[in-house]
User: Which sequence fits this backbone?
């Protein structure tokens, strides 16, 4: 029989390269099966009311999963059918652990209905069902699900941490991690759906730079949730933890704005999609923050209205230019505007965190309350003025585009 008639796996196994990979595959399988054993042990500890030992076993599974995924990179060399069964076993056991945790809280008369855990359990179950359906379809088509994506690995990491927090009965932190996990499950599921339904012959893989740009859009609703976590429009009353998280998210928004451009140029992945998506993602994330500032009194209605008017009119100008075959490049005033907006956002959020710390540990600090009372409004006033002037600059510099329509 000719070698071309052999199945892909059989042909590979007859080559020296295939033979050299087989011990690594076996080692990976042993590693993953041992990790599944820690899940089973954690389940047993939950039934025996041993939360400490359950946490220990889940911690061990977390470390083993990290090693297998990032160091051993077992999914890169494993055969698709074996990888499917190993991944399915891990997902089912994880689902079972969340089900047990949910039933424990549901049957406890001293506990309220675990709404967040219920939402996470439903989301995870749906994700696993769709994983099963799509994976079987992909195996039939001799295609592989992209399980080794960095976002998929972080989703698994988030799931394991959430498990441990619920086992440890850390109500505050488990709620935070569950929301994070649900959002990451949704994000990675969208990525898997795109991979499954895309036309491979006409579409290119999404570059790393574009993924960073997309992350700003996906994290904008997360920022709003963090900002209003206590269901109170007064951000000053929010928990210190969430004030720190809000500041970190804002720093990520600003840093990623430069990072995606750097990655696109460094990796030679500059694309038309990235050029249009980058300013759009900036506006989505910044406007989400400005609306939060409006609700909490850091900005006036006229400020947010002027900023929104400027952004929408400049985007309309870009659309008119594109329809005329004219590309409107970013101007220096626009770059200054974006930098100033990001700086003001980070400054306000960081100083709000500082204000909370001073109230807690140094409540009698002189002059600080009077100074802080004027900082947010003053910064937002300056941001609004620069944003407006930047819009005027764009229209003056692109009068030729407007003359074609007016």
Assistant:
């Amino acid at each position: 029989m000719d070698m071309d008639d052999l199945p892909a796996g059989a042909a590979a196994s007859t080559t020296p390269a295939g033979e050299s990979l087989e011990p690594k595959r076996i080692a990976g399988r042993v590693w993953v099966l041992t990790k599944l054993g820690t899940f089973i042990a954690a389940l047993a500890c939950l039934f025996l009311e041993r939360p400490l030992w359950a946490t220990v076993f889940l911690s061990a599974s977390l470390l083993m999963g990290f090693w297998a995924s990032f160091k051993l990179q077992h999914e890169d060399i494993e055969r698709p059918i074996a990888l499917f069964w190993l991944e399915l076993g891990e997902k089912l056991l994880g689902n079972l652990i969340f089900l047990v945790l949910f039933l424990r809280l549901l049957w406890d008369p001293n506990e309220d209905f675990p709404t967040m855990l219920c939402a996470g359990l439903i989301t995870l179950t749906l994700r696993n069902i769709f994983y099963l359906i799509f994976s079987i379809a992909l195996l039939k088509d001799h295609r592989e699900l992209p399980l080794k994506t960095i976002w998929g690995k972080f989703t698994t990491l988030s799931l394991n941490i959430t498990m441990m927090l619920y086992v440890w009965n850390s109500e505050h932190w488990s709620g935070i991690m569950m929301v994070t996990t649900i959002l990451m499950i949704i994000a990675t599921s969208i990525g898997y759906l795109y991979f499954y339904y895309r036309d491979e012959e006409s579409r290119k893989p999404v570059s790393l730079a574009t993924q960073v740009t997309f992350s700003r859009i996906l994290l904008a609703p997360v920022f709003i949730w963090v900002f209003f976590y206590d269901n109170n429009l007064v951000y000053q009353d929010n928990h210190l933890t969430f004030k720190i998280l809000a500041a970190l998210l804002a720093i990520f928004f600003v840093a990623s704005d430069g990072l995606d451009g750097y990655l696109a140029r460094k990796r030679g992945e500059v694309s038309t999609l990235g050029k249009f998506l980058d300013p759009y993602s900036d506006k989505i994330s910044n406007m989400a923050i400005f609306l939060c500032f409006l609700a909490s009194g850091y900005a006036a209605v006229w400020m947010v209205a002027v900023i929104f008017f400027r952004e929408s009119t400049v985007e309309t100008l870009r659309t008119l230019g594109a329809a005329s075959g004219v590309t409107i490049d970013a101007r220096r005033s626009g770059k200054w505007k974006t930098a100033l907006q990001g700086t003001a956002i980070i400054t306000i959020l960081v100083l709000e965190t500082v204000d909370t710390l001073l109230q807690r540990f140094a409540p009698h600090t002189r002059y600080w309350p009077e100074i802080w009372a004027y900082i947010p409004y003053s910064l937002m006033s300056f941001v609004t003025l620069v944003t407006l002037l930047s819009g005027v600059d764009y229209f003056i510099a692109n009068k030729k585009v407007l003359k074609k329509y007016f």
In short: Residues 16-47 form the longest helix (32 residues). The two ends are 74 Å apart (CA to CA). The chain has a mean pLDDT of 82.
